[in-house]
Amino acid sequence: MKAASIFSTPKDLPDHERQKRRHMLASLGIAWLVMMQVMMFAFPGYLRGEYIGTESLAMLDTAIIIMNWLSFALTMPVLLYCAWPIWLGVFKKSSSNSVRVNMDWPVALGILTAFIPSVIATINQQGEVYFESVAMFVAFLLTARYLEFCAEQSARYSKIGTPAILEQERAIMTAKADKIAFAFVVIQILLAIASGIVWYLFIDRSHALPVLVALFVMSCPCALSMAVPTASSAARAIFLNNYSFTPEQQEFVLSLTRKTANQNLYGSLAWHILMAPLAMFGLVAPWVAAITMLVSSLAVAWNSWRLYKKFHNQGFIIGPDWTAGKAVQG
Q1: Which of 16, 19, 257, 279 is 20 to 30 A from 273, alpha carbon to alpha carbon?
Q2: Phi, psi at 259, each rounded to 5°
Q3: Residues 71-122: pLDDT tens digits?
């Protein structure tokens, strides 16, 4: 019998859920393909400073204008198709039938703050464009959300053999993570707006937009939202592969799950807090901010995977005969 894994597809997964997974994977693939192509089109713009005062500058500017229009054309499908769930999330209504601020708001603000000025610069044929940052942001965001979705889907449809106490722990940890993520997003948005204003009024107007975009990108709570789903999915896989656990062994796994979830949550929070001042001082470009978001999300997924592999690699997946507290330590 094949061992369950943290991101595995449950055998009893309904067809409509399988279709959701395929659709997310297709959107993810398109976003990554566009991202790589737009990054190639952005390359001439990076070289412009080296050609100022040379005879080749006029030819390079013409190439940049063409590349900007191509980047604009390629980015549109990413915004209208790949990022469609983000726009739906922005206008999602609460139980009281009113639109409320949620985790998609900072993402949408970051995308629009980078995209609209880029379109204006492309039409006017002057100014900086950030199409590659938009494409990277969407591609990396979808990567994090796909991992989160697979982990949640795996946990939701593979509850056979999973202790009820795990679902209770999951609910408690999720409520805690949501509160922290919401506070983080609000503070990060306020910092982004304040920093953009300070740069525009007192430091360098031309650099205000990159600072604002970078901070908006970093306000995406992708890693924070993955903290609990991935950790609980790892615990679910452990329980499914060790259905004969005693209550003491179950509690030991739960304690490790709580520890892993907290590591994911506070580790990603510390990473964002560390990077935020650098972005405020203008040291983090928007595309670099997108990479930092991806790094933190992948780190969360890896840490949760490490919890699962810790049991799997030491032979505790089949027929555990260890005592509580000795499985991982010994």
Answers
A1: 257
A2: -60, -45
A3: 999 999 999 999 999 898 888 765 555 556 667 887 888 899 889 999 999 9
Place of tokens 């699962």: 308
> Where does the pLDDT of residue 320 fall: very low under 50, low under 70, confident under 90, or very high at 90 and above?
very low
| Half-sphere exposure for 54 (CA within 13 Å, toward CB) | 11
Three-state secondary structure call for residue 99: strand
Give the number of other Cβ atoms within 10 Å of residue 81's Cβ.
Answer: 12
Give the distance between the most distant pair of CA atoms in the chain.
77
Q: How far apart are CA 23 and CA 26, in angstroms?
A: 5
- 209 closest CA partner among 298, 114, 142: 114
The pLDDT tens digits of the residues spanning 50-85 come to: 777 677 788 888 989 999 999 999 999 999 999 999
**Sequence spans of domains, the chain:** 15-313
Amino acid occupying residue 183: A
Please compute Rg for the chain using Cα positions: 23
**Nearest alpha-carbon partner for 185 in 293, 278, 85:** 293
Q: pTM for the whole thing?
A: 0.82
